[in-house]
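Recap quiz, item 2
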Amino acid sequence: MSLEKFINQAVSSWMSDDGPDSDIILSSRIRFARNLDEFNFPTLFTNGEAEAVIGTIMERASQTSAAGFGQLELIKMAEIPPLKKRVLVEKHLISPNLAENSVHGAVLLSGNEKISIMINEEDHIRIQCLFPGFQLTEALKAANEIDDWLEGYVNYAFDEKFGYLTSCPTNAGTGLRASVMMHLPGLVLTQQMNRIVPAINQLGLVVRGIYGEGSEALGNIFQISNQITLGKSEVDIVDDLQSVVRQIIFQERSAREALAQTSNIQLEDRVFRSYGTLAYSRVIETKEAARCLSDLRLGIDMGYIKNISKSILNELMILTQPGFLQSYAGGPLKPNERDIRRAALIRERLKMETKDELGG
Amino acid sequence: MICQECNQRPATLHFTNYSNGEKSELHLCEQCAQEKGELFMMNNGPAFSINSLLAGLLNMEPAFEQKKETFKMDQVSQCPQCSMTFPQFVKIGRFGCATCYDAFREQLTPIVRRLQSGNETHNGKIPKRIGGDLHLRKTLDHLKQILKHQISEEEFEQAAGTRDQIRELERKLSASQEGGE
């Protein structure tokens, strides 16, 4: 398969589409945790109950299609190879937990991959809406529509005091986790992140790396999300997150301006060195690739590099992950083989950009 | 004792490792331990997760300590639906079913308050169909607060409007309750 065709099939709309403030915010995500009243939680449920949960939701999905989101496709974890699961994790469509631990797990995906409904993860239902750029309000609206559509048919576990009941009480109440993925090279280069992270934590928000809990901030990409799920309304939780995110955007822009003024040539040098590494290296590890891609994207945002599309960071950060590389290669690869493949894929992808330029 | 790594600062953290029956000890200061931190965290198999953190937090719950002593005498702390016991919940940090929230309501409230930075009552979305008249009751509470505020601010004209809304809602509520019975 040609790389162009592979990319077209692999890239979800949140990676390639432009959204508001997409120079800093790569994506916005809303997640609702829900459980069905009549079955035990996935912590304890029997095989029969697990099947019944999938059955109940599928019945709903086959009766009507979710308003405006088209047909949803069901994928059962037990029925797909490990590599395909890994690709879904790398695209942020399912959690590592669903891929690895859930025997009865499944996911319902919309065609554009903006909507994914995980079934039988930690909770019976996890509704996720993933939008490009800074669009938390839009994602919340979509998640509410999906939620209402499901609730029209199934009985959720709900308590007047504790709200939506979840298997872990850290999610009870709204069951809402709102998060944004931010590219913050300016704040990292000016060494301000160490100061900002504790400040964000004090406001009841959590900062994590690109693949969630415990993961590193590869490529200067940070995930910021709410911690508290109970006691505040959904809109208030999202508003609070938004106002903090707006301040971080402002700080990142000032850091970039300061860098341009005080060390313009050093920054330009850094950007072009990374561009060179990406364009010519023959062996490249995930970490180095992520660092160079972050530099390249910063160079594009700051106008040093003009002929490359912005979506390159989102796309290549995902496409150079082990699962994707192996599915492009058509089979398992050893780590050193991956590094060679990764370098080749990046070179080829960059050639597509410059070819467009020459052709046009 | 002096830190084995830097040989300068006093060792405040002591690690003991048993492998194949052999015991090895390591004494480090906080700074060196942090630098070596990745080694310790990563080699210990299951990642450091929110659930293990939560289980740690719950284990410190004083209410639970008291329960533990009397636990053998009365088996109250068991969920009638899924048979999960409160100590089991504390161990894994997750409930077995929706009824657990009812069964452990008393022990749970202080824990929820701690996890949710002081909050203990849901203030968000209510499911439309099964929520019943909860929507109406929540709106009613909200309107009553507005009314109080308007009276204290002497905004009597608006207050009259709010009062009418409250009356209307109360009528709806009693109608739905009669209908339900």
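Chain A touches chain B at residues 35, 37, 39-41, 43-44, 122, 144, 147-148, 151-152, 155-165, 167-170, 172-174, 176, 204, 213-214, 227-234, 237 (CB under 8 Å).
Chain A has a mean pLDDT of 89.
End of item.
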